[in-house]
Amino acid sequence: MALQSIERLAKEIAKLPGIGEKTAFRLAMHFFYGDDIHRESFASALKDLKTDVVFCRVCGNLSTNELCDICSDEKRDRSILCVVARYADLLAIEQTGEYRGRYHLLHGLIAPIKGVSIRDIRLKELFERVDKETPSEIILAFDAGIEGDTTANYIVKMLAGKQTVSRIAYGISMGSDIENADVHSLSRSMMNRTVLR
Question: Of 15, 120, 131, 178, which has the maximum CB count within 10 A?
Answer without folding.
Answer: 120
